[in-house]
Amino acid sequence: MKIMVAIKRVVDYAVKIRIKSDKTGVETTNVKMSMNPFCEIALEEALRMKESGVASEVIAVSMGPTQCVDTLRTGLAMGADRAIHVDAPSTLYPLTVAKLLKALVQVEKPGLLILGKQAIDDDCNQTGQMVAGLLNWPQGTFASKVVVDKEKKAATVDREVDGGLETLCLDLPAVITTDLRLNQPRYATLPNIMKAKSKPIKKMSLAELNVDLRSDLEVVQVTAPPVRKAGVILSSVDELVDKLKNEAHVI
């Protein structure tokens, strides 16, 4: 069984985000970029499945400009067998990504598609659900534990919900999105980083996948959240009660 893992290049989680002066987005020039943390978890889970004998091959895929190749190299250094880069504009919305993933799945025919539950740059949490709908595959979102039964061609997914844990049994092929507590991603070692340079990265165009990039969404403006007011020290309970009654609604 092949496992396909979607990974995204995002602004590094440790970088303080700055809004562009024209308010069209966030500043990415000369900013450290890295693999989305949830995508790292997804890739780690796929690699563990391969090491346990469940999967025969792990394919990392990414969509965007040429710089995405660097993120794919990181995935290859972690242990992915090969990678696919879809050359596309830097701004892609969830439905478009889902359509591209559907087209790639039809080409590669994996038994399992694993994604991070969301990307830390937009926090949409939509792509996994959308691609499952387009493929008409069962889905297990927010997975905190995944067990694949190779013989029965099924996966058992424990997912975190508001009331605790929910266990799903999915027939393969299926889509799984990963939560933080699923695993701890490995670090790429220097020997594996060197080996990754010789691993194949297949480049595909939008024309080859026959996907229309038109979107119904338009970003009008990106603004930073308002600065929070400084706290105040009150001298009595009566003063606190007065402020809660008269000023608590003021933002």
TrEMBL record:
The keyword Cell membrane does not apply. It comes from the Eukaryota. CDD domains: ETF_beta (cd01714). Pfam families: ETF. Residues 23-213 form the Electron transfer flavoprotein alpha/beta-subunit N-terminal domain. It is found in: Mitochondrion matrix. One of its GO terms (molecular function) is electron transfer activity. Heterodimer of an alpha and a beta subunit. Belongs to the ETF beta-subunit/FixA family. This is Electron transfer flavoprotein subunit beta. It comes from Helianthus annuus (Common sunflower). The lineage of its organism: Eukaryota, Viridiplantae, Streptophyta, Embryophyta, Tracheophyta.
